[in-house]
Amino acid sequence: GVSHLTTTYLEVTVALNRWMRNVIDEESRRQLKWTSITINDNFQSARHRDRNNEGVSVLSAFGEYTGGALMYWPEDKGASVHKIAQFERQDAAVIEPWHTAIMFSGQKAHEVEAYDGYRMSVIWYTYKDAWEMTPKVKKDLANAGFAPPTTKASCKWTLSEESVTMLNEGPMIQESVERSEVGIQRIPRTANSEDLYKAVCC
Fold first, then answer.
1. CA-CA-CA-CA torsion for 70, 75, 81, 85, nearest 10 degrees?
2. Bridge partners of 62?
3. Of 12, 72, 181, 194, which residue is most buried, by most CB within 10 angstroms?
């Protein structure tokens, strides 16, 4: 069922989901599915792959800090092909999520670079096999602002080349790709991102 944190802090959950919907592009609002939110309080994530997610993840970060970008290896083909420690830091896409929303595949190797200061991050994602949830759970999630998937296929969709970018001199992906395989997108900072940070942190 729906977690007790969602029901206990329903207004915060709704605000987080509304903010994310407002900053992503129109196509993403139509296509993106998600069931879960994780809030990391001043936590530097080591290199890993998400094992219980499906499809795209959305990341935002808030706070007063330096460093703390997402390092991401889009060429990662998974544990059967690549050992996670083999990736070189200079080959990573470096994406800054501060007061914005970025999209990436959590199933590929990624980590948070070292930072100084206070950093809070918010991640929206779809839990594995979420399309098998009962209609009641899907309805409860939708009432909290989530967009639960109805089928596994609904977690996968094509990202156009114009909206796939990597920041900080990272490479541009030139062809259309599956979001669940590569996709990265950055959405510009919005005026109300500071208000969201204050609402969650203060």
1. -30
2. 120
3. 72
Q: What is the pLDDT of residues 96-146, one digit of tens each?
A: 889 888 888 888 899 999 999 999 999 999 998 888 999 999 999 999 999
CA distance 106 to 57: 6
DSSP label at residue 164? -
Q: In this structure, are residues 33 and 149 in contact, taking their beta carbons and an 8 Å threshold?
A: yes
Q: What's the N-to-C CA distance of the chain in angstroms?
A: 29
**Which of these, 21, 55, 57, lies nearest to 37 by C-alpha position?**
57
Neighbours of 8 (CB within 10 A): 9
pTM: 0.78
H/E element, 185 = strand 185-187
